[in-house]
């Protein structure tokens, strides 16, 4: 039943030219005339097609213009088969196949295929949505030239598709049409079509070779004032890809449409990107600083796909990381070049470790290029995207940024217009740089799991030598018991304890070049490296910049060493990491203490003063980027602690009390300093750059969150929160104030939540923030609050993915104590929703179901209660393939 990577076979027929006519209506008529070229003698033409999601009905099938009787072809739940005998052409010859169907877009709640969102028609075809709108060879190695005629009543003024609009006009029956032609061959997953009544922002961009591109952003009526930021981002993306990677845009128009109902973030359809409105709409009153940055990243991401994904695409869906890992890497670099590189890097590492490491350690673990899948949508995963981007980043580290740019240019040149594999990408990098990446490729692309790397050092003062002994291993994952050693680029530096600064050294030989940072290539299970010219006993700074997606340990680093690195390392990732490691060690001991029955009190922990003085040093260091100070203040959370523990040993009560105790320790221990820092960051400084303002607000709101946890300062802090809410700089402050009171049962909380709702109740995206705060509250009333939200039909719609994410996923994935309530009420609530949503949108249901896959991490009663809910979901009638895959793998994996 699963699809297997090694069973790839090229298609028996290729669609060369596709001529589509789409009449948008309650029941839409779609006519698709295709020139199919035979590739294999004697093969039937097997077309993908699924009736169910959009009630697709076949009207007629014509071969070379002649009608084919219904009994001359076979149709089942997933395919239409036209027998070879009905297709009298030899290999290399073309035959015309025209299929007419009707679909009902309104009924398509899966949001996959052609559907309606807030009255507008739109499409989502990746990965396999086209088959919900038409019988077709729905696979990415089937690339065609599309001509698309869109027809609708004039109450639907905007009719869009891919490419250039070559003709438009009125029809005798009072309707109108637009004809689109896309000159670039593409797979059907990049096809898009939109019909609706929008507000439009237009602009233009002149490319490096002087071609003018018309830009358009289409949004639901009334949202025009929230589009300028997205347009600025789009123009920056065009420019950046020219400058950094020599990529020029290739058509005379580029459009973005924002819709309210969208399962994912956005989609890179050729010249017609479709976005979840959350990643387009922004103004100061309604969007936080983080929203603005996310929009920039995602606008960039979809635009960059024009080359990494569209001009060069994937041969099959197992190669998904070929375009996604690469494009995430490209959007990360875009955001880093335009904003603070250090804080972007730390945020990306946090995302990877909080969510991808969990995936790698659980029942859904898969290599970035998986070997098998049941529902491909389940593999639009953190592993394929985020770990995939780390693999690309390591290649850049190995071949250097200039070498990477050369390799990327060769890749695009060599494979333009083709559907290729991850191996093709690596080959281009090898050929452009004359390096051998075979070990790298054969480990990182094929093995799942997070490698563990441990380092021991020994210093020889006489010889001025430091020896590093590096060992690596990787835990078993489903289907992969044993792993080969990975090819790991380990970036290291040395910090001198007498100079408090970087030490220079030489790698390998005493006459090598002197450096202050080096990348060691770890390729064996155990390996030694010698650094020469090391003038004093150093503290090693390891895995600089998080140079590889591994778990690193160095047991000889003392807690004082960690504090030292947090204060003095020149690498901002290692500074951050050292503080986190210290906190994690203390938390681990607090969890152990709680397990032995002692009420966790962080104040009497012997290393509490060390942690506090380290944080104090960071807070007082005026030379630091405030965004980094704020990141240093965020302690490892409950879920990170659960992940770090041995399988089957995570006790929710012990973890929760330890984490709460640590937050209290910091709040009580540094209260006056937080108050002082809050005052210093409250107002904009003179000549402050926009980036500095973002960092300042981030730190301000971190301080506020600690201040409300300080018993002596709480009352004053609540006043500060109310004031900040009433006189905010922008939404960051208003939302920050609500977040600060989220977990406190007080009148200020009631008031701010009420005011927030009253102010923004007509703005869907802001109301989703209001949902999220309540779903993530640690107060015991949270499940009831979510039930009340579900009873507000004017703002909550369970068919809308954003609503589900803001309530159910926010709760299950971001409210540790609520989801894991010992009585099982959180589990039951979420499982009920999975069962309910499965009939509406399987992809949304399956994303929620992934939250149960960590059940084996916990002790009883949590593990048994999660397991019982998984069994209940598994027993649902007509469970979707998407959810079934997650649930079955969760139940089966050891
Ligand atoms: N290619 C899109 C992006 O990463 C994501 C589309 C995913 N769609 C899906 N149904 N899984 O930009
Ligand atoms: Zn993407």
Automatic annotation (TrEMBL):
SUPFAM superfamilies: Leukotriene A4 hydrolase N-terminal domain (SSF63737), Metalloproteases ('zincins'), catalytic domain (SSF55486). The keyword ATP-binding does not apply. Residues 560-892 form the Peptidase M1 alanyl aminopeptidase C-terminal domain. Pfam families: DUF3458 (PF11940), DUF3458_C (PF17432), Peptidase_M1 (PF01433), Peptidase_M1_N (PF17900). It comes from the Eukaryota. Gene3D superfamilies: 2.60.40.1840, 3.30.2010.30, Neutral Protease Domain 2, Peptidase M1, alanyl aminopeptidase, C-terminal domain, tricorn interacting facor f3 domain. This is Puromycin-sensitive aminopeptidase. It comes from Hondaea fermentalgiana.
């Amino acid at each position: 039943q699963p699809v297997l990577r090694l069973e790839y076979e090229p298609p028996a027929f290729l669609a060369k030219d596709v001529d589509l006519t789409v009449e948008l209506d309650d029941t839409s008529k779609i006519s698709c005339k295709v020139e199919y070229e035979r590739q294999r003698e004697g093969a039937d033409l097997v077309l993908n097609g699924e009736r169910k999601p959009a009630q697709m009905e076949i009207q007629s099938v014509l071969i070379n213009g002649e009608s084919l009787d219904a009994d001359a072809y076979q149709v089942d739940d997933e395919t239409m088969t036209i027998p070879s005998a009905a297709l009298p052409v030899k290999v290399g010859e073309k035959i015309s196949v025209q299929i007419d169907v009707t679909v009902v877009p309104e009924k398509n709640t899966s949001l996959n295929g052609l559907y309606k969102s807030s009255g507008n028609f739109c499409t989502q075809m990746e990965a396999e949505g086209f088959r919900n709108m038409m019988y077709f060879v729905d696979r990415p190695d089937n690339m065609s030239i599309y001509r698309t005629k869109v027809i609708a009543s004039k109450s639907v003024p905007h009719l869009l598709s891919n490419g250039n609009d070559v003709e438009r006009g009125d029809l005798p029956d009072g309707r109108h049409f637009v004809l689109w032609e896309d000159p670039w061959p593409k797979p059907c997953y990049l096809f898009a079509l939109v019909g609706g009544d929008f507000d439009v922002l237009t602009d233009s961009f002149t490319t490096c070779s002087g071609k003018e591109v018309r830009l358009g952003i289409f949004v639901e009526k009334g949202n025009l004032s929230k589009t300028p930021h997205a347009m600025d981002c789009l123009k920056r993306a065009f420019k950046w890809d020219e400058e950094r990677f020599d990529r020029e845009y290739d058509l005379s128009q580029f459009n973005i449409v924002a819709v309210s109902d969208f399962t994912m973030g956005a989609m890179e359809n050729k010249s017609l990107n479709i976005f979840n409105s959350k990643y387009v709409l922004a103004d100061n009153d309604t969007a936080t600083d983080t929203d603005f940055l996310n929009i920039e990243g995602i606008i960039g991401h979809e635009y960059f796909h024009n080359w990494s994904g569209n001009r060069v695409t994937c041969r099959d869906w197992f190669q998904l990381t070929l375009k996604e890992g690469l494009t995430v890497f490209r959007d990360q670099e875009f955001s880093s070049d335009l904003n603070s590189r250090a804080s972007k890097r730390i945020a990306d590492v946090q995302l990877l470790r909080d969510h991808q490491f969990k995936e790698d350690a659980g029942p859904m673990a898969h290599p970035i290029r998986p070997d098998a899948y049941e529902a491909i949508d389940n593999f639009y995963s953190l592993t394929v995207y985020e770990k995939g981007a780390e693999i690309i980043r390591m290649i850049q580290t190995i071949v250097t940024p200039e070498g990477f740019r050369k390799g990327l240019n060769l890749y695009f040149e060599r494979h333009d217009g083709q559907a290729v594999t991850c191996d093709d990408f690596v080959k281009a990098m090898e050929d452009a740089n004359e390096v051998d990446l075979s070990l790298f490729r054969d480990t990182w692309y094929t093995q799942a799991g997070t490698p563990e790397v441990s380092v021991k050092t020994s210093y020889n003062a006489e010889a001025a030598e430091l020896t590093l002994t590096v060992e690596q291993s990787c835990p078993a994952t489903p289907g992969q018991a044993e792993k080969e050693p990975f090819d790991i680029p380990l970036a290291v530096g040395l910090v001198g304890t007498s100079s408090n600064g970087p030490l220079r050294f030489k790698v390998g030989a005493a006459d090598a070049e002197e450096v202050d940072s080096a990348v060691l290539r770890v390729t064996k299970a155990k390996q030694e490296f010698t650094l020469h010219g090391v003038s004093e006993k150093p503290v090693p700074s390891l895995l600089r910049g998080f140079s590889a997606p591994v778990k690193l340990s160095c047991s000889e680093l003392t807690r004082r060493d960690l504090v030292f690195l947090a204060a003095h390392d020149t690498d901002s990732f290692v500074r951050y990491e050292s503080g986190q490691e210290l906190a994690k060690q203390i938390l681990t001991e607090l969890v152990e203490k709680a397990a032995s029955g002692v009420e966790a009190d962080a104040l009497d922990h012997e290393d509490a003063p060390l942690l506090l003085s380290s944080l104090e040093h960071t807070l007082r260091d005026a030379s630091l980027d405030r965004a980094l100070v704020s990141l240093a203040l965020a302690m490892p959370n409950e879920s990170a602690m659960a992940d770090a523990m041995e399988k089957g040993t995570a006790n929710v009560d012990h973890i929760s009390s330890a984490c709460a105790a640590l937050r209290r320790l910091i709040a009580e221990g540094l209260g006056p300093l937080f108050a002082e820092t809050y005052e210093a960051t409250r107002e904009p400084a003179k000549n402050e750059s926009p980036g500095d303002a973002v960092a300042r607000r981030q730190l301000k709101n971190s301080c506020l969150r600690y201040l409300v946890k300080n018993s002596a300062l709480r009352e004053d802090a609540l006043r500060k929160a109310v004031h900040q809410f009433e006189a905010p700089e922008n939404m960051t402050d208003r939302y920050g104030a609500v977040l600060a009171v989220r977990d406190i049962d007080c009148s200020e909380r009631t008031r701010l939540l009420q005011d927030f709702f009253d102010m923004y109740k007509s703005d869907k995206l802001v109301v989703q923030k209001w949902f999220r705060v309540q779903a993530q509250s640690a107060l015991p009333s949270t499940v009831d609050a979510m039930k009340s939200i579900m009873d507000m039909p004017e703002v909550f719609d369970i068919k809308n993915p954003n609503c589900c994410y803001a309530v159910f996923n926010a709760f299950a994935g971001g409210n540790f104590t609520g989801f894991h309530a010992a009585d099982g009420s959180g589990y039951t609530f979420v499982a009920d929703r999975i069962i309910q949503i499965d009939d509406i949108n399987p992809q949304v249901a399956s994303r929620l179901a992934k939250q149960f896959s960590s059940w084996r991490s916990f002790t009883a009663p949590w593990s048994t209660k999660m397991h019982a809910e998984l069994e209940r979901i598994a027993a649902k009638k007509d469970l979707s393939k998407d959810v079934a895959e997650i649930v079955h793998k969760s139940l089966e994996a050891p």
